[in-house]
Amino acid sequence: MKKSYVIAAVLACALTAWVLGGYYLRISGKEIAETAENTKTLPAMKVSVRTQEAEPVSQVVVAQGQTEPNRTVTVRAETMGQVSEILAEEGSTVEAGDIIVRLEANDREARIARAKAHVREQESAFKAAEALGKKGYQSQRQADQVFSSLQTAKHELQEALIELERIEIKAPFEGAVLSRPVELGAYVDTNGEVATIVDNDPLVVSVQIPQQKVANLKKGQSASVHFATGQERDGKIRYIAARADEGTRTFRVEIELPNADGSIPSGISAEATIPTGSVLAQFLSPADLSLNEAGALGVKTVNDKDEVEFHEAQIVMSDANGAWVTGLPKTARIITLGHGYVQVGEKVQVAEEENSDGGADMPEASAQLATGSVTEPTAAQ
Question: Which residue stretches belong to region Disordered (predicted)?
Fold first, then answer.
């Protein structure tokens, strides 16, 4: 009796398992079929694309610096004496050879008179010696001694004349009197400082260029300079240091520019803009940029097969409207909407922007150099 109950229970369990197994198999098969069907019918992601051409962007090196005089010299006295006359005031302009200060002559003129008399005396003695020598009354040695005395007298006269000239202390070149520490009546020693003259034409602008940028510069290269006074001038590079500063690892570069009117003083701040060439770049809005899985900044584009590509981009210039970047094809189909939802290699549906006609709807891309507006964008390195 108990055995029949056990058999009946086993049969009931088996029947229940068979019914439930068929149900789940039907449900599972239906889901798999539906999933496969949905996968086959899922449409490609639609993205908005703008086609545009790369444009030349001028690259420049911008550096801060200061103006310096072309030449600076401290004028010193070559003789001693008391200042008797001042002919150049501080801040005045002098020409080469202009007298700045004159010293008292004292006995210098009297020394010249004595030296001249001595020369005449020796000349007479030499003529007499020559006459006696021709007649055989005087030896050649005696004649040579008289000639030597004449030459010594002439040298002494020349020294006296030079000493008199030295009382007039003159400007060595055209420039401005920066300082004049002596006053009327002051006593000046030999080698004493009399004045400092600066030459501001041409004017020199010295800047420090980072070691990464100095290879882009060369002598004679054009540069534009904007001064703290609001003035602007064009010039050329005249000097590039052969060695970097040990502390800053920067190179001193000098830019020479005309300053004939002297309107730009030395010692003021200046900003130099040096063009170094141009590069083809695309103008993009910040929304067009994205990051790849490695965290690199770039742009997603669509190739001619409507497949997504990623191009790492380098920003060469930026402003409030967007950025000029390199690294894209010359003609690029840039994804402007939907780039965050597609992956590299994925095939997409392309919707061209209405204003996409082979060039981007970009602002007038021009940069203000020190000389004014230019016709093409400029990348400040």
Answer: 351-381
